[in-house]
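Retro notes, structure queue

What went well: the backlog is down to a handful. What didn't: a couple of records were mislabeled last round, so from now on we paste the full input next to the output in the thread. Example, using Flagellar basal body rod protein FlgB from Marinobacter halodurans:
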Amino acid sequence: MAISFENALGIHEKALNVRVQRAEILANNLANADTPGFKARDIDFKAALGEAQGQSGELAMARTEPGHIDPDAAMSDRALLMYRNPYQPSLDGNTVDAQQEQARFMRNAMDYQASFQFLNSKFAGLTKAIKGE
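Corresponding output:
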């Protein structure tokens, strides 16, 4: 009997991928904390994970004619990327609050580590099952 990694690993593999994407976005915000006019962005983790699982909760679009735009190609990962409403925007139009971004980045890093540890324990369990321990 073949092992289905998708069933065995559960949601944690997809969660890791979404956490990596979010880390890139938050790092970009931190890198541009002093850039005039830069707008802080973030990703809705729950919506991104739901989309990664194919459970967006919305009706699916379909191409009815060959000339129509492919809805899957039109919907990218960046569709979940949203601008953040600042608590106190700066005078130069920058909406990045460096302390808030650092806190979000660290929280995301801890959540990434937790998902990674869950995956590690899943692999350890699979290894024991294969060895018959």
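Agreed that this is the format going forward. Reviewer comment attached to the example: The chain has one domain: 11-131.
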